[in-house]
Write a structure and sequence with these properties.
With 80 residues, this protein is α+β, with helices and mostly antiparallel strands. It has one domain. Helices cover 32% and strands 30% of the residues. The chain is built from one helix and five strands; from the N terminus they run βββββα. It has a five-stranded antiparallel beta sheet with strand order 1-2-3-4-5, with helices on one face. Strand 4 and strand 5 form a beta hairpin. The longest helix has 26 residues.
Length: 80
């Protein structure tokens, strides 16, 4: 299961449900490229084939929505 958190322009932001033991992070895809960003600082963990211009935009989007993404992470992986 890959719950979609956000769509913006050509990008889809989501979690992989089988990664609960990793620190909070988000994946983003566009076409065949998939990147991974840590939510605590919006750092790129894996650029996934995105060009630098797209990565700059992705980092800005994750930074703008970081609090909501972290809240969604905890709701999804720690639903207590």
């Amino acid at each position: 299961m890959t719950p979609t958190l956000h769509r913006e322009g050509p990008f889809r932001f989501f979690f992989y449900s089988h990664e609960p033991r990793e620190p909070p992070h988000v994946h983003v895809e566009r076409d065949d490229a998939i990147a991974k960003l840590w939510l605590h600082d919006s750092a790129i963990a894996d650029s996934g084939g995105f060009p630098a211009q797209d990565l700059q935009r992705i980092v800005a989007i994750v930074s703008a929505h970081r609090d909501r993404f972290i809240e969604a992470w905890h709701e999804h992986f720690d639903p207590s």
